[in-house]
Amino acid sequence: MTATAYPVVGRREFLLGTLALGVMASLPGVAFAQVAADPASDAVRRLMVLSTQNALNRLGQPNGFLTSNVARFGMPVLFAKGAATATGPLSQGAFRQELIQKLNYFAEAGARGAVPAMAEASRKLPIPNATAIVQGQPTAATSALRLEMGSGLVNALRGPIEQALVAAQDPIIAQAVAALPGVTLRDVAQAIALSADNGIWYEIGSAEAELRANPAASGDSALVAGLAAARAPVPAPLPPAAPRP
């Protein structure tokens, strides 16, 4: 597997950022409907839009999921339970590995199709405390977006994935579906979307960390200025102590 070249944010760090945003949103007087029109709010919104677009565009490339060390996923629960996994193609290790690769491949279509919905959500998300987000964890903006969207990413992924499955009529997917009574391509699309959800958020978090580490590389001068303006001020050095008489 080829490792990606951008900063990898640990899952523990990402989850801590999400927890911190949840606590902040529950505090009295803090509401996602309250937005301060200031450079910090603009910087957070730009972080959200750019990080989601960068991450989804990366994952939408050929083998985007398979070569990502945070987004690639294993066998969805749909194909890993029931009597069908004891016999037939789903009981064969080689077939299961090929199926996992196919499912990751079809997740690429979901990533590409979800770009508009995610960009729209990023632009509309109310921001309660932009300065705290800018000064917070490297994935704080991603955590705020995920907290607000809930299952929105899964919903954005499912339709494009189902369309890709129907159009491809892939024989490996067809064999797997035939082994599971009552399962349809819509069910497969849902399973892929659910399996890809966490990994995509980690990818978005990594993209945000990358933007924070080198905002100038984005070519977005407003992002650079907003991040700089909202950073915690550096304390002035203490004056030297007066010499004792």
Automatic annotation (TrEMBL):
Give the organism the record lists.
Novosphingobium anseongense
Q: Which InterPro entries match?
A: DUF4197, TAT_signal
Q: Which PROSITE patterns match?
A: TAT (PS51318)
Specify the domain of life of the species encoding this protein. Bacteria
Instruction: Kindly provide the name given to this protein in its UniProt entry.
Output: DUF4197 family protein
